[in-house]
Design goal:
FAD/NAD(P)-binding domain, 18 strands, six-stranded mixed sheet, single chain, seven-stranded mixed sheet, alpha/beta, 384 residues
Length: 384
C-alpha cells in the first residue's frame, strides 16, 4: 500500500522546511496536518540566505514573485581579512550566479520568507495548520503514526499515515528513529543583529554579501528588505562578552559596524555528526532535525527546503518505499554538507601563518575555480 493511501501526512514543526513540505505535498494532491508549538507564527529570527538550490524549489512552487518583492539578489560575495580589512576576493553573483546555477540567489528576512509560505498555504485546503500544540512524543501505530501532544485543553493524540519531523535542532521526533537527541557545542556563539542600512559604515554599504575572517571569529553582513536593512552576524568565542569584544582588534570598519548595531541576540552554535539514517518505518526527518550543521555554508534553511521537495515528490509518486527512497536520496548529501560546514569554520577562523597562507591562496585562486567549489551545493536539482 502506498504511503499517501494510509492517510494524511503529519508534519511536526512549521519552520521553513515544514511549511515548504506542506505546500509541496498539497501541490501534488497530498493532504497534511502541520503541528506547531507556537500559538502564533510571529516575526522572529533574522536573515536567511536562499541560494539557488532552494530558490529553484520555491520558484517551482510559485513563490518567486512574493520573494522578489521583499528579498535582495546580491551582486557579489566579498571576502576580506578582518585584522587588516583588505579584500581578498570578490565572487560575482547576481545574474552571473543565476546563469551558472539556473536559479536566483536571494537574501531575505526569515519573517518575510515565513509570510510568503504562509500566504501560499492559506489557499490550500489540503493543509491543516494546527498551532499552539507541542509535540511530546512520536510513535508508529498499527496502521500509521501518532503524535502525542500538549494543547491548551490538555494532552491529545493526532494520527496520520506517516510523519515528517521538521522540529529543529532539539527534535522530539528523532527519538522515534532511535537516534541520539543530544547536540555538540562548538564553544562558539553567533551574535545576530538587524540594523538600518543607513547606519552601516561606508565599507558595508552595498547589496553584496560580505564576509570578514579573523583569528577565531568571522563576520557576515548582507542586505535585507530590498536593501533597507542589513543582517549582521558575528561568530566567535562563547566566552566573549559580546560582538564588540570579538572584533576589538579588527580593522576600524568592522568595529564601527558592530558599534552601530543594537539589539544583539546571542545564538550558541551546535551541530551533530552525520547520522546513519533519516527515517525509520513511517517516520522521516528533514532540516535541522535530520542534519544539524554549523551555519558557515548558509545551508540550514536551503537544505530543509531541498529535503521537503524530495520528500514530497517521492511520497506523491506512491512508490513501494517512498521514505526509504527519500533517505537514499538525501543521506550522503546532507552528511557532506555537515562535514564541510565544520571544515569551513576552521578555515574562516585561522590565525597566524595559516591565515596568511589562506589569504594568499584566496587571492591567487581563479574566480572560476572558487565558484566550482559551490556547484555541488547551488547546482542541485531534485530528480524529475
Amino acid at each position: 500500500m502506498s504511503t499517501p493511501a494510509l492517510g494524511p501526512a503529519l508534519i511536526a514543526g512549521a519552520g521553513p522546511g515544514g511549511l515548504t513540505l506542506a505546500l509541496a505535498l498539497a501541490r501534488r494532491g497530498v493532504a497534511s496536518r502541520l503541528v506547531e508549538r507556537a500559538a502564533m507564527l510571529e516575526e522572529t529570527g533574522a536573515g536567511v540566505q536562499l541560494s539557488a538550490n532552494a530558490g529553484r524549489v520555491l520558484d517551482a512552487l510559485g513563490l518567486g514573485p512574493a520573494l522578489d518583492a521583499v528579498s535582495t539578489r546580491p551582486e557579489a560575495v566579498s571576502i576580506a581579512d578582518a585584522p587588516s580589512g583588505r579584500t581578498l576576493k570578490t565572487l560575482p553573483f547576481g545574474r552571473a550566479a543565476e546563469r551558472r546555477w539556473g536559479a536566483p540567489y536571494r537574501v531575505i528576512h526569515r519573517a518575510d520568507l515565513q509570510e510568503a509560505l504562509l500566504e501560499a498555504i492559506a489557499s490550500e485546503s489540503a493543509i491543516d495548520l494546527i498551532l499552539g500544540t507541542e509535540v511530546k512524543d512520536a510513535r508508529e501505530t498499527d496502521d500509521g503514526v501518532a503524535l502525542d501532544v500538549a494543547t491548551a485543553d490538555g494532552p491529545a493524540a493526532i494520527e496520520g499515515g506517516w510523519l515528517a519531523g521538521a522540529d529543529g535542532l532539539r527534535s522530539v521526533v528523532r527519538r522515534a528513529l532511535k537516534l541520539p537527541t543530544g547536540v555538540r557545542g562548538r564553544g562558539l556563539v553567533a551574535w545576530r543583529a538587524v540594523t538600518p542600512a543607513a547606519a552601516l559604515p561606508k565599507t558595508f554599504k552595498s547589496l553584496n554579501v560580505t564576509i570578514w575572517m579573523g583569528p577565531g571569529a568571522h563576520l557576515v553582513v548582507y542586505p535585507l528588505r530590498k536593501g533597507r536593512e542589513a543582517n549582521v552576524v558575528v561568530i566567535g568565542d562563547e566566552r566573549a562578552s559580546g560582538a564588540p569584544e570579538i572584533v576589538a582588534s579588527w580593522a576600524q570598519p568592522a568595529r564601527d559596524l558592530v558599534g552601530a548595531a543594537t539589539h544583539w541576540t546571542p545564538w550558541p552554535l551546535f551541530d551533530r555528526p552525520p547520522d546513519a539514517r533519516l527515517r525509520r518505518g513511517r517516520i522521516a526527518l528533514i532540516g535541522d532535525a535530520a542534519h544539524a550543521a554549523l551555519p558557515t555554508l548558509a545551508q540550514g534553511a536551503a537544505f530543509a527546503i531541498e529535503d521537503a521537495a524530495t520528500l514530497a515528490r517521492l511520497v506523491a509518486a506512491e512508490g513501494p518505499d517512498p521514505l526509504g527512497a527519500y533517505e537514499a536520496a538525501r543521506l550522503m548529501r546532507a552528511a557532506r554538507m555537515q562535514v564541510q560546514a565544520r571544515r569551513q569554520i576552521e578555515i574562516n577562523h585561522m590565525a597566524g601563518m595559516r591565515a596568511r597562507a589562506r589569504n594568499a591562496a584566496l587571492m591567487l585562486a581563479p574566480t572560476s575555480a572558487l565558484l566550482r567549489r559551490y556547484d555541488w551545493i547551488y547546482g542541485w536539482k531534485d530528480a524529475a
